[in-house]
Design brief:
Structural class: mainly alpha
Number of domains: 1
Low-confidence stretches: none
Distance between the termini: 39 Å
Largest sheet: none
Mean pLDDT: 90
Helix content: over 70%
Strand content: under 5%
Length: 78
């Protein structure tokens, strides 16, 4: 379980960096990575508590990271 948490953080950081470098988002590298890691943490703990999610923890991390990058910046923009 502990290694799954570390893997989730690493995958979320990679997704945040990759999304910023490819031009998917325009938040900056560090804010995108922080948003991805936060979304992945949230989804990881929801999966632990309620059992929602996909079969693989890696797919959960990728889906949560991309979802957080889509939801968070658009929610706070005017």
């Amino acid at each position: 379980m502990f290694l799954t948490l570390f893997g989730t953080v690493v995958i979320a950081g990679i997704v945040g960096y990759a999304c910023e470098r490819t031009g998917f988002t325009h938040n900056g590298i560090l804010p995108s990575m922080i948003i991805c890691i936060g979304g992945a943490f949230l989804f990881y703990f929801i999966r632990l508590m309620f059992g929602f999610g996909f079969a693989s923890p890696g797919v959960n991390a990728i889906a949560a990271s991309i979802g957080a990058l889509i939801i968070v910046p658009f929610h706070w923009r005017k």
